[in-house]
Amino acid sequence: MEQQEYATGAARTAGGTSDGRTGGAGRGTTAAVLVVRGSGPRGVPGTGADAPHDASHDVPQGAVPVHDSGSPSTAGLSPDPGLLRLARWFAEAEPGTADDLCAASLGLYPARHFGAPAGPAGGPATAGPATGSAPADPSAAVPLTAAPSTAEVSWWHGPTAHTPAPLRAREPRPAGGLRRARRDAAALPVVLSGAKPGTPGRHRKPERSRGAGTVPQDRSAATTAAERRIAARLLVAHPLVTASGPHADGFPLIRRHRDWLAERFDTLLGYRLVVGPWHARLHKAGLGPGATRRLEHPATGAPFTPGGYALLALALALLVDAPERLPLDGLLAAMDAVRPGPAARPADRAELAMALAVLVDWQVLGDLPAAVLADPAAAGPTVLTVDRELARAVPVGPPALADDATDLIRLAAEAEPGTAVRRRLAETPAVLVADLPEEQRAWLREHGRTGPAALAEFLGLEAEQRAEGVALLDPAEELTDLALPGTDTAAQAALLLVERLVEEVRPLPGETAGTDVPVPDALIDGVLGDIADEYGLPAGWRRDYLADRTALRRDALDLLHRMGLITPAPRGTRPPGWLLRAPAARYAPAPDLLPAPGTGRHSRPDPAFTVPAPVTPRAGQPV
C-alpha cells in the first residue's frame, strides 16, 4: 500500500493553530495526515487567503501512513520504502544521471534564462517591442506577431546581445530576495521585493505623465496582476517557499492568489501547486536526460555526487516520520543501518555534511552549529529540530512506478507535446527544434508564435524567436540561477571564450547553418590561453585559475554547457570534443561580412583592415 501511495506522490496538509514557533512550514501544527496526491481538489480548502482551515478537508478516503508495520525500524525511525529505493538508485548512478534523477524525483531546481535581449543592430531584437535592458511593459511584451521576420533569422547571423569587454562591470546580484515582475508604471506604488519605502528599486520604471484626457487605469486590477506575476516568478525560481524563510515576503502573495496560481500552473505547465498555512510547494516535473541541473552546497556551491544524493535521500526517508526532536547520532546510526551499497567510503563525511546543509537550507532541519555542518560525524551531542511537513513536501517523483533510475527520469518528463514544450521554455534558456521529438517539433511549428505568449505573460518574460528555436528572456536577469555575463572569474572567462569561438567557427552567410558546429579542443585551449594572458591580471582574476588553466577551462566550459551554449560531442566521436550551439552567437559581435582578402573562415578579421573608399575622378581626369 505504501509503495502505491508514494508512486502517486504524497503531500501533507496541516490543521491546527500556531504554537508561536518560527521556522519551517510544518511547525505549529497540532495534527497532520498523509493524503494521496491527486485525490482531492487542487489548492488549499477555503475561498480566501485568510479563510479558516478545516482539517476535515485534509482527510480523503484511503489516507494511509507513510510506512507500514513491516518497514525496517532503527533507533525508533521507520524509513520510507520509496525513498530507500531512490537512495539505492542514486548510489548506483553515474554523476550526470544522478543529477537528472534529482530533478525528476525532487523537482526543486530553479528556472534558468538568458537576460539582455539581442539587438537592435542587424534586425529586430525580440518578438516583443522592447529591445533594451530595461523591463518592458507586460501588456506590450507578448504579441509574437509584432516581428514576423524573426522566425527566419538565425541566431548565427541575427541580432546580438554582445557587450564590449570594458563595459561588462556589473553589480553583484543579490543572494536572496523576492523576484520582481515587469509591470505597468501605475501597478504598484512600491516594488514588493523588499525595496525600502520611497526607493523604487533598480528595475522600477519611471512614472509616465498623464495627459489631461487620460483615463486612470484600474489600480486594483493592476495591483492584482502585478502581485500574481511576482508570486508566479517566485515559485518558478524557488519551488519551496516557507512563511519564515528567505522569501517570506512573497508567501502572503502566494496564499492570496493560490487558486489562480494553481489553475495557471496546471493549465500551462502541468505543475501542481500545494499551499498550506506555512509553506507553498510547486511540484515541478523532471526535465529528462541531460538537463544539466544539479544540486549544490548552499554555501560553497560544490556539486553533489551520487553518494551525496544517496545520503540526502536516506535522511529524507527517515525524517518523514521522525519526531520533532531527534538526536543527530540517532539519525546517523539509522542511516548507516539502512544505507544501500558498499561500506562507508572516505568521502562520506563531506557528502553527509552537504546533505545536512541542504536540509537546513530547505528548513527540513533547524539551524545547526557550524561545527556540525563542517563534520557531522565528529560533532558532539546535537539535537536536531525536524519539520516533518517539509520533509514530506520535498519528494515529488514516483519511484514505485519506475523500473530503474533511467525509467524514472523518462516518466517524470512525460507530458503532452504542448505542455512539454512550455516546460522547456519556462525552465531552460532556449528551446531548439533539433532537440525536440517529432510530436513536439510539430507543436512548436504550429504554435511557434502564439504558444509561448501566455507563458511569457504569466512569468513576465519576452520571447526571442529564431530559425533554430525560441528563447524566453528575462531582461531583469532575476529569474535564473546562473548569470551570464557574470562577475566572477569563471563567468568572465566563459563569456570571452564563447564570443571568440563564435567568431572563429560560425557558419558564413549563405552556408548551411545547422544548430551545432564542432569546436576543436586545440582551439578552445588556444583561445582560453590568449584570454587569460590578456585579461587575467588586469581584470584581477583569481590567482588559482591563472595558475591552473585546466581548472579555468573546466569551470568555464561547465558554465557554458549549463547555459546551453555548448554541448559535448556525441559519444564515439573521435577525437571527443565540444559542439558550439546556435544561441551562443547572441553573445558575440555581429558577423563581419567583409573579411580581409585572403583570410579564411577560421581567422578573426584584422581590426586594422579597412575597405578603401571609392575614388571619384575629377573633371578631365581619365577614369
What's the short story on this structure?
With 623 residues, this protein is of the alpha+beta class. It has 19 helices and 13 strands.
Describe this structure in words.
- It contains 19 helices and 13 strands.
- The protein has helices spanning 2-8, 81-92, 95-105, 219-237, 251-256, 258-269, 306-319, 328-338, 348-361, 370-374, 388-393, 405-413, 417-427, 438-447, 451-459, 489-505, 521-535, 543-547, 549-562, and strands at 10-15, 31-36, 240-242, 272-275, 279-283, 325-327, 383-385, 431-432, 462-466, 469-473, 516-519, 566-568, 578-581.
- It has a three-stranded antiparallel beta sheet. Strands 8-10-9 form a three-stranded antiparallel beta sheet. The protein has a three-stranded antiparallel beta sheet with strand order 11-13-12.
- A hairpin with a 3-residue loop joins strand 4 (272-275) and strand 5 (279-283).
- Helix 3 packs across helix 12 (405-413).
SSE layout and pairings?
Elements: H1 2-8, E1 10-15, E2 31-36, H2 81-92, H3 95-105, H4 219-237, E3 240-242, H5 251-256, H6 258-269, E4 272-275, E5 279-283, H7 306-319, E6 325-327, H8 328-338, H9 348-361, H10 370-374, E7 383-385, H11 388-393, H12 405-413, H13 417-427, E8 431-432, H14 438-447, H15 451-459, E9 462-466, E10 469-473, H16 489-505, E11 516-519, H17 521-535, H18 543-547, H19 549-562, E12 566-568, E13 578-581
Antiparallel strand pairs: 1-2, 3-5, 4-5, 6-7, 8-10, 9-10, 11-13, 12-13
How many helical stretches? Answer: 19
- Overall SS class: alpha+beta
Mean pLDDT: 75
Determine the oligomeric state from the structure: single chain
In terms of DSSP E residues, the strand content is 5-15%
First CA to last CA: what distance?
95 Å
Bin the helical content.
Answer: 25-40%
Largest beta sheet: strand ordering: 3-5-4
Rg value: 26 Å
